[in-house]
Amino acid sequence: MWNFDNFKDSVAIITEQGEQITYARFDEYCKMLTSHINKRCLVFHLCANEIGSLVGYVDFLQARIVPLMLRADLDLELLDNMIDIYLPEYLSMPNAVAEKLPHFQKVYSNLNYTLLKTNFDKSYKLSDDLALLLTTSGSTGSPKLVRQSYKNLKANTESIVEFLNLNSTERAITSLPMNYNYGISVINTHFWVGASLILTDKSVMQREFWQQIKEFQATSFAGVPYTYEMLDKLRFFNMNLPNLRYMTQAGGKLLPDLHHKFAKWAKENDKRFIVMYGATEATARMGYLPAEKSLEKYGSMGIAIPNGKFSLVDTNGKIITIPQSVGELVYEGDNVCLGYADCGEDLNRGDEFGGKLFTGDMAKFDDEGFYYIVGRKKRFLKIYGNRISLDETECLIKAEFTDTECACVGTDKMMMIYTTNPAQNENIIEFISAKTGLNRTAFEVRNITEIPKNASGKTLYSELEDI
Description:
By secondary structure, the chain is α/β, with parallel strands linked by helices.
């Protein structure tokens, strides 16, 4: 994936303590880890924004070992379920998490990370093209995975490097989780050009985050819509950030007013504000709005990335050619993933998408070919940048609270959980917040006498949305 020999003496990592780790030293850490794994296999990698986690991700890819990227604080019940389904040969995780799994064999520990061997009687065959696995749900720990190939990763990395015009002088701060596709793309692209990563687990809400941006001279940071909503409240526009060159936004549609506000600030302060559009199924990015168009076209997610192609199709599958007509957005490119996996046997499947992705987003384009997302076709939300399946959330709640009927709808700002049992309101909030790892303010429980359903027993979500 990367050729670190080209950047041996350059700084790869700057830690929260200010330690600078060169590419040569970082590469040594990597090789120490996979010397304990003697073959290509599946590894569950529980991620945190720290050096041990980054070493694991990079080295697994370099050694053609396939990691499934999960968040380090994933609910252990969900983790056990996924282990039972996919039978990984190894688990890589923070030391504190490894201590909770004493039934697996510890084979290596360094940089606050431990490698465990599972010793299952069997393992599943992996496709030669398979490079990386990510969950589709982002937070709920769904067993459904996205299968990304080495070709996907390389193609998308090269495209992002091109349209962001990245070079070795960049210093990006890790403002996003390492198990999140958007966060992974920042790692991939900066290591591709020999740039530096400022490695932190602090959020934009913490003073330490901004201290590190200033002290370590960060040139960029990435954020989801929620990030920019918080920055607006934190008086970001009054900050003095002389080293900042650009900011990127993806992970959901930014409110047009906020888009305009940040684009205007960027133009007035000689910065670049770049709105992007992507999906895990497209490895990372599919579209971007060039910085020079950010103010003029605010509200747009832009044009297709280099070597990619957008089109719109109507309900009959016909290509839409008339501007301002709404249809489903379709993307074509080498970064479109191989397909999905629902079980261990699926890990040996080949390319099932053929470089073409029906995004499920409804969009339109203007007279100049710039695209605008107008809605979603399927039942997913993107809250704080995490894609959440409404249907999976319902299943989790129904399994835990058997005395309660529920149905979930909502927006990218909040999920509304309708239930028929007021006595469980607080318990449901606590439960689903813990399961997803999202703040409880992302959810609101509303009570109704019965869940509206049609004659065949299917929930009438449109009636709930009208409420």
